Amino acid sequence: MSFGFGKEFRITVFGESHGACVGAVVEGCPAGVPLEEGDIQRELDRRRPGGRLASSRGEADRARLLSGTLGGRTNGGPIAMLVENQDVDSSWYEENRHLPRPGHSDFPAFVKYGGMNDYRGGGFFSGRMTAPLVMGGAVAKRLLSLSGVKVIGHIVQIGGARLREEVGDQEIEAAAKEGAICADRGTSREFEGEIERAAKEGDSIGGVVECRVLNLPIGIGEPFFDSVEALIAHGVFSIPGVKGVEFGAGFGIAALRGSEANDSFVVRGGKVATETNRSGGVLGGLTTGMPLIFRVAIKPTPSIRKAQRTVDLRAGKESALTIGGRHDPCIAVRAVPVVEAVAAVCIADLMIRDGKIPRKVGEQGGN
Question: If you average pLDDT over every residue of the chain, what do you get?
Fold first, then answer.
């Protein structure tokens, strides 16, 4: 098993969907970083269930900061955080524990753990485990903010509907504050309509999250295997439901010639920059100083009301299954702060390794 991620800045997640709680422990955060429960809560509130586009599971997701701070600043020790699972209903899972849900980890987990896995809501395979990722990411975001680094994201595709025009960084930040799922308001309404139609039909729909990391220094990344792309891809693929990651022009770059794909170097404001950003702010696994841009494909929620085929693991016979419980019609919507969180954890780790973030910061760090 591997529930920890990162080297210098490391996050470990724990808990299960229908257990007592889910949480995270962050190690390696420098001492002196301003951090309070409110910093964690703001990020959790963006991810929490509820509302017409999300699961009706009524979790308050109240952040508890258990250790690692003193007087509103990090003290250099492990930062332990958790939220309690309060609105748990395991009855459907108890009744159908031997009927693996299509699209879920139920069957391979049953085989791997000899039937001892927590089948209630998927256990630690559940999307509920994205709450610990967001908590760890909140710490990383707070740390990165001291260096002026921002991590922002929004939805650029729901089903076959796509954002058709480029939007600015300020528009994405404003949309997040207003609760819009896409920085373009017209497109956001179109996306919401797609989600609502899928839900009315007892189905679900997938989407694409775009994430941008702004104001990065040049040269962040540790080739060969911990390049900035490699580390982010590793972290992002750990998010339940992720099926694809692309940077910059992504798969579309395969249709271009080198003369079209290359980003020409120019001087802007006395600094070297690139005229375009098809590379997504990364060359040779290192940041270029341009915005780091990547997109994440999220599959449709596998738990749907429509009848599906499965196998009764006790009888060894095929069976029909209609999934009950409370589920999001589109998990991509709540995945935006999760993708941001994982990106922040990766960048914080790489910046500490590169010496861009000191071991102690702030007024009480001894500097």
Answer: 94
- Contacts within 8 Å (CB) and 24+ apart, 360-365: 360/30, 360/31, 360/32, 360/76, 361/30, 361/31, 361/32, 361/33, 361/146, 362/31, 362/32, 362/33, 362/34, 362/73, 362/146, 363/32, 364/31, 364/32, 364/71, 364/73, 365/30, 365/31, 365/32
pLDDT digits (tens, 9 = 90+) for 248-295: 999 999 999 999 999 999 999 999 999 999 999 999 999 999 999 999
- pTM of the predicted structure, to 2 decimals: 0.96
- Summarize pLDDT for 117-140 with one digit per residue, the tens: 999 999 999 999 999 999 999 999
Element holding 274 (H helix, E strand): strand 271-274
> What is the CATH number assigned to the segment(s) 4-353?
3.60.150.10
Q: Left if phi > 0, otherwise alpha if psi is -120 to 50, otherwise beta: which for 96?
A: alpha
338's torsion region: left (phi>0), alpha (psi -120 to 50) or beta?
Answer: alpha
Q: Break the chain into its structural domains and give their ranges.
A: 4-353
Number of H helices, E strands in the chain: 9, 18
Distance CA 93, CA 113 (A): 17
- Confidence band for 30, pLDDT divided at 50, 70 and 90: very high
* Residue 48 banded pLDDT, cuts 50, 70, 90: confident
Nearest Cα to Cα of residue 79 among 48, 36, 128, 38: 36
- C-alpha span between 2 and 311 (Å, rounded): 29
Dist CA 82 CA 74 (whole Å): 17
Residue in the block written with tokens 């702010």:
281
Distances (CA, A) of 39 to 43, 61, 139, 155, 181: 7, 13, 8, 23, 21
Output DSSP code: residue 105: S
Query: How many residues appear in the chain?
Result: 367
With 60 as the cut, is the pLDDT of residue 339 above it? yes
